[in-house]
Amino acid sequence: MVAGHPDGAGASSGSVGAVAAAGVSSPGAQDAAASKLAKQARGNADGSRVPVFSLPMAVLCLINFNESVATNVIWPFLPFAIVSWGVAPADTGTFAGIFASCFFVSQLLTAGGWGMFADARGRKPTLILGLVGSAMAMSALGFAGSFPVAVACRALAGLTNGNIGVTKVMVHEMVSKRDQAQAMALLSFNWGMGSIVGPIAGGFLTATSLEQAAGFSVPFLDQFPYAMPCFFSALISVLGIVVGACMLPESPEWLRQQSLGQAAPPSSCWATCGWPSKLLDALRCACVARRGYHHVPAEEPAEAAFPSAAAGTGATPSAAEASSGGAGSEASPPDELGDGISVRPERALQGCLARAASRLAPAPDSPLRDSVLLRCFGLYATLALAAILIDELLPVIGKMRREAGGLGMSEAEIAELLIIQGVSLVVFQLLIFHRLVARFGEGRVFKWGSVCALVALSTLPVSIWLGNSSGPAGRWVFVGGALALKTLGMGCCFSLTFVFINSAAKGRRLGAVNGISQSAASAVRVVGPALGGILLSVSLRSSVVWIHTGVVCALMGLAMAATVAIGASLPTSVTDANREPDDMPPSAPEAAELELAAVHV
């Protein structure tokens, strides 16, 4: 039975009744009837899938496009805005790193929660709420007049938005397995379009560019020179809210889980699920241990709170004895926690530390116990580290003087450099990527892409030197070519990483799995920009020009080298990616229907 199909239940019951009415009793006939029932159930499930080029996929592409614009619109003007907010030019790299990190600090805290919220409340409401948060944050950033206000706006954007992971979940649930790579390529295509439109808005809608084009100044733009690019991004978010609310259907797979009672309960979201609540619970235990008491939940037997008494007498103290610490013993302190937790001053530190460790340990069915998923999470984390480093530092390097190892570009020229990356990604994803995957398999294409990105990032200082030595045309050829190669490689890696994560989930709640992967990426994106900005600011004090950009490029190369190493163990193609639906093993609901059919027979 598949939710979203009104006649799904009737078809299933009718099939069972038909098998029973046939009066088939031989084992061979039973197997044939069960196989027919399974094929019918899988046919209903396959009917809920949508083509790659369909209205729901177009809406998801618009949401992904909005995420790309909101991410890329700030890079062309970021180093200039930081200086306008009162930061010394020599510290631009450090403050750019702080600005980029604050988004991912907040996203790290909420990415898992948004994934669980999507499992409990649905994919569509989660995406709409994320778009609302993005529109609010970008509008507020346009009015930022100081660096702390800008950081607060960027943190708000991270807190309210988990759309990247949820979008990938919906694509996995709505598109058939044989079209997964093409669907992810379509999302990457729209991300590339956003990486073209975003830098155009960020470079050409600033006050400086608009006033130069118009020939006169506008008081509003003089006061808020970077408001128009931010408003442009917020406008796309509003468009996504309207289109998504009207035209995006809920995921049929989530509806099916709801009808079967398999969806996550609402209580599993936010405060009661995930690592934040476990960490808070462990800290709560540690606070009790610091007071010298043994933290025992009320639902555990009393022997846990009074091990010596239970071991010596074989009896459990009564409630009165428990509240007073037992006969002849010193009275225990009152209940410190107010929720039925018993305490006693015996083996406090050892017991509480053990309990804290057990509470932080993942559940038996947790994705954190799956070695394949852990490898995929590590793959995404190292790839995200390399990507955020180049995204954050490229505008700073573009603004640096050529004598210091930079490119000496203006806002518009930095935007043009970023547009080259977007155009190369769009053309590659639209015309070449899916053909490479179909010909060579996901694993090989990922490995080739990671090697290309490693070469491009590691040799970027050489490309910059060759470009500055060859004049303006040479700068666009060498630097633009290196960035295009990097973009193609990372485009392959990002698209296929989500294919591997969704394939390795093996029926787990995809919202939670993608929330964990997003948290892993956010964790390294917290450290990466700050570390890269500090390294760049420190290296600029050196008299050796090669060190100015060489140190941070070496860090990017190390991150991509780790990606290459982890990706070396990937299979050539995703398991079962090209198998027909009839060849798939039955899911748990289908197996239950088959068992019911056998009983009726």
TrEMBL record:
Keyword Transmembrane helix attached: yes
Gene3D superfamilies: MFS general substrate transporter like domains (1.20.1250.20)
Compartments it resides in: Membrane
Membrane topology recorded in Swiss-Prot or TrEMBL: Multi-pass membrane protein
Taxonomic superkingdom: Eukaryota
GO cellular component: membrane
MF (Gene Ontology): transmembrane transporter activity
Domain spans labelled Major facilitator superfamily (MFS) profile: 56-579
Transmembrane segments: 69-88, 94-114, 126-143, 183-206, 226-248, 372-394, 414-433, 445-466, 478-501, 546-570
The UniProt record lists the keyword Transport: yes
Annotated spans, Disordered: 305-340
Keyword vocabulary terms for this entry: Membrane, Transmembrane, Transmembrane helix, Transport
Coarse class of the protein's main subcellular location: membrane
PROSITE patterns, per the entry: MFS
Bias-annotated ranges (Low complexity): 305-334
PANTHER family the record matches: MAJOR FACILITATOR SUPERFAMILY (MFS) PROFILE DOMAIN-CONTAINING PROTEIN, MAJOR FACILITATOR SUPERFAMILY DOMAIN-CONTAINING PROTEIN 10
Protein's name in the database: Major facilitator superfamily (MFS) profile domain-containing protein
